Amino acid sequence: MSASTSIVADFSLAPEGAKKIAWVAQHAPVLNAAFERKLCDGSLRGVNVAVCVPLEAKTAYLTLLLKRAGANVALAGTAPGYVQDDVAAAIAQEGVIVFANASASAEEFEEHLIGTIRTDPALLVDDRGELTRILHTKETARLPKVWGATEQTTSGVTKLKNMERDGILRYPIIAGNDAMCKHLFDNRYGTGQSTFTAILALTNMYLGGRIVVVAGYGWCGKGLARRAAGLQSRVVVCEVDPVRALEAVADGFAVMPLAVAAERGDFFVTSTGTHAVFRREHFERMKDGAVLANAGGLDTEIDVPALAAMATDVREVRRQITEYRLPDGRRLHLLAGGKLVNIAGGDGHPVEIMDLSFTVQALAIHYLARHHGDLPPGVHPLPPDIDREIAAIKLETLGVAIDSLTDDQVEMRLRWQ
Amino acid sequence: MSDSTIRDGSLAPEGERKIQWVAQHAHTLDSFAAERLSDGALRGRRIAIAVHLEAKTAYLAWLFQEAGAQVVATGSNPFSTQDDVCAALVRRGVTVHAIHGADPKTFDEHLLAALDFGPDLIVDDGAELVTRLHQQRRDLLPRVRGASEETTSGVLRLRAMEAEGALEIPVIVANEARCKHMFDNRYGTGQSALTAILSATNLLLAGKTVVVGGYGWVGQGLALYCRGFGGRVIVVEVDPIRGLEAAANGFEVATMADAAPIGDVFVTGTGSIGVLRAEHFERMKDGALLANAGNYAHEIDVAALAAMAVEERDVRRHVTEYVLADGRRIHLLAQGALVNIAASDGHPIEIMDLSFSVQMLSIHHLARHAQEMAPGVHSLPADVDEAIARRRLELLGMRLEEPTRDQLEYARSWR
Q1: CATH number of the domain at A3-182+350-398, out of 3.40.50.1480, 3.20.20.70, 3.40.50.360, 3.40.50.1980?
Q2: For residues B150 and B352, is the Cβ–Cβ distance under 8 A?
Q3: Chain A closest CA to B85's CA: distance in Å?
Q4: Residue of chain A minimizing CA distance to B195
Q5: B350–A contact, CB cutoff 8 A
Q6: Smallest CA–CA separation between B228 and chain A, in Å?
Q7: Percent of chain B at pLDDT above 90?
Q8: Is A22 part of the contact surface with chain B (CB cutoff 8 Å)?
């Protein structure tokens, strides 16, 4: 349990990482309240917990609180591009076992995930179902030791539900993503704000009057479209689901097929949870200078290999901006190599958003610890009373009071005549 | 080249990359350089530029050089100077006197060195060169044909000089061109100050109370963009008409004393001093964030804040925490300097493409017509201003409606 068992890039980076974690601690009132009121009740004492979430300061703070609640915590990032080495060093020095290095190769990264599983976790905080994948494929002998897991992302929940459908899933999973205090805020407003802040910081470009094409109008897409409009751009939404497309129309956005939008857009942002949303047939039609960014659940939403195959010249023209020059001279600009732009090109979601999301995760882990053995294998929702409790704590920390129903109103709701 | 004073010539490749990125997005400037600067009016002219010395400014300097001028560039604020861009500019043949973080005395020497270059045309920011020319380098005054001025605050200084009869050259106040302040001051500041604050803090704006000090062009942009990101905006104004305009735009209007205890984020853009001061710091909430989006660093009384604090430390890059005696923490961004420039890359490129088109055509106008212009403050001719907007719209692929003959006639009639 000492720092020496951790694998990080450079321990000397710890002071800068510690500063970042302290900043988070100052802006995480909900997590702090949940820690004091619930996490510390002894349910997590001595329990092994593995965490696999983009490894920056907010994640580090969550693991720190789990550790302070008595758990033994092991931590990995979700991909090499989603690791901040200074934070990894700082959290390792706090006694969390860390397997993470921003410059790890794909193989080394896989080894890090396996190393995390070899700490024999009973509880998992997972992102995109990565730890569950390792457990069900490469480390099956350790499956019986797992009490349950929570899942952070939409795409991870989809994957886990597929596993449940096929009868493969061996332990209960709480779909943290599906809690209202998670997706209503994190997916929508967190993604919306942090994606555009990152795009504009990376490019130094102006959005006013430009056409922003948002692919996907789920929770992330709704936030992206709204914030793009707030930046005075003209928003075009592309969807495959007719109800969501109709919702986008009602919200005042232009809706059209991507094949048409490809010719008009100045900025393209994808958040669909599926593969190759922007692909060859679109690259062929895009304007010179079009900017491409991914804000979705998968790193493959932009078909980067196809883009590279089409290009006659590929070079980095600014930090995190790759220029692909096509045979006809058009230049397409890919941000953050097609990875999540807000994480790879910025500090990820705002602190207060992750304060909510990680409170969902922390209380889901706490719930699994207390009810271990009660839940069958499969994907479960966070109990709604916990969801409401989190929102109530957040409102309390904001100093916002709300109303309650009168006795008459309560009674009326119970009547049927 | 050897006459330049810069940090390190070996930084040139990174600076060159930044300038090339700007070149890809400066279509308006390119089109006017090709169309108008090719007339030879700038050939052999000596031009001094004192503007925030990063890639966009460098590109303007280079276009002047391409048009046949000899150019010297210096910064208008030592903290906005980017050393790699300076190195690249020197490699492109422009003389540069600027070093990031220079102390006030060195900064002053750089400005004077730019004057000693012997310019006949000046692109100024905050009237830094023009005021020094009139006080410390009067011997060089006779050869200066004119200047253009970039900022609202610089224009205030120039008008004060003019009122005292002290301004001896014609100055075109580029800032007052509509293609400058309506876009640069308003939308450029709005977008870039907002994104700089959020990048520097990693905090959420949605649901926060944002107090905007001033509702001039800068304040209007700040309020608009903060609302666009879910902030609840309160505007603080001293001018009743601007205050009323803010109210009509759907913002709450209040005094700073009343806003101080309820704001989460405070942003100033007034052109004045001490907008946020001790009496306000005393009433602010724990964790209040302070940022300045106005031209001068004294909009926030940092000295008063430091005097009140029992502890002062850097808690994140560009964020200084002041712990007050009662334990409240106040977070100051970029030391109170212009937040979008000090903590980020400044205005968006396409905005500066417009602003610098104004500057470029002002300098071009001065090169051709300065002799016919009296000393004093002048406007950019309205037809030049409109030509810039027309060109930008064309480049965006948008077309304007042409008035019919009837409509033109109606507009001229009075009966």
Answers
A1: 3.40.50.1480
A2: no
A3: 13
A4: A197
A5: yes
A6: 4
A7: 92
A8: yes
Note the pLDDT tens digit of each residue in A52-64. 999 999 999 999 9
ipTM of the modeled complex: 0.86
Q: Comparing C-alpha atoms, which of A8, A218, A188, A417 is closest to residue B206?
A: A188
A121 conformational bin, left if phi > 0, alpha if psi -120 to 50, beta if neither = beta
Q: Tell me the chain B residues in contact with residue A232 when contact means C-beta distances shorter than 8 Å.
A: 187, 191, 224-225, 228
Inter-chain CB proximity B21 and A321 less than 8 Å: yes
Closest CA to A167 of A379, A373, A364: A379
What is A189-344's CATH number? 3.40.50.720
Q: What is the mean pLDDT of chain A?
A: 95
Q: What is the pLDDT of residues B69-121, one digit of tens each?
A: 999 999 998 888 999 999 999 999 999 999 999 999 999 999 999 999 999 99
| Average pLDDT, rounded, for chain B | 95
Asked if the C-beta of A193 comes within 8 angstroms of chain B's C-beta atoms, the answer is yes
Cβ of B78 under 8 Å from any chain A Cβ?
Answer: no
A384/B contact by beta carbon, under 8 A: no
Name chain A contacts of B348, Cβ cutoff 8 Å: 200, 204-207
Q: Which residue of B has its CA nearest to A230?
A: B228
pLDDT of residue B311: 97
CA distance A415 to B176: 67
Look at A348 and B287 and tell me if their CB atoms are within 8 Å. Answer: no
| Cβ within 8 Å, pair B319-A317 | no
For helices A14-26 and A351-370, angle between their N-to-C axes, nearest 10 degrees: 80
Q: Can you give chain B as a three-state secondary structure string?
A: CCCCECCCHHHHHHHHHHHHHHHHCCHHHHHHHHHCHHHCCCCCCEEEEECCCCHHHHHHHHHHHHCCCEEEEECCCCCCCCHHHHHHHHHCCCEEECCCCCCHHHHHHHHHHHHHCCCCEEEECCCHHHHHHHHCCHHHHHHCCEEEECCHHHHHHHHHHHHCCCCCCEEECHHHCHHHHHHHHHHHHHHHHHHHHHHHHCCCCCCCEEEEECCCHHHHHHHHHHHHCCCEEEEECCCHHHHHHHHHCCCEECCHHHHCCCCCEEEECCCCCCCECHHHHCCCCCCEEEEECCCCHHHECHHHHHHHEEEEEEEECCEEEEEECCCCEEEEEHHHCEHHHHCCCCCCHHHHHHHHHHHHHHHHHHHHHHHHCCCEEECCCHHHHHHHHHHHHHHCCCCCCCCCHHHHHHHHCCC
Which class does domain B9-180+347-395 fall in?
alpha beta
Domain extents in chain A: 3-182+350-398, 189-344
pLDDT band at B366 (very low <50, low <70, confident <90, very high): very high
Q: Which residue of A has its CA nearest to B343?
A: A201
pTM metric for this prediction: 0.90
Q: Which residues contact B198 (CB under 8 A, 6 or more apart)?
A: A193, A194, A197, A350, B205, B229
- Are A3-182+350-398 and A189-344 in the same CATH fold? yes
Residues 6+ apart with CB under 8 A from B34: none
Q: Give B17's contacts in chain A (Cβ within 8 Å).
A: 317-318
Query: Domain segments of chain B: what residues?
Result: 9-180+347-395, 186-342
Task: Report the residue of A84, A204, A234, A318 to disrupt the B interface, i.e. the one with the largest count of B CBs within 10 Å.
Answer: A204
Encoding tokens for residue A203? Answer: 């490019």
CATH superfamily of B186-342: NAD(P)-binding Rossmann-like Domain (3.40.50.720)
Contact yes or no for B228 and A209 at CB 8 A: no
Q: Quote the pLDDT of residue A414.
A: 86
Q: How many angstroms separate the CA atoms of B241 and B228, rounded?
A: 23
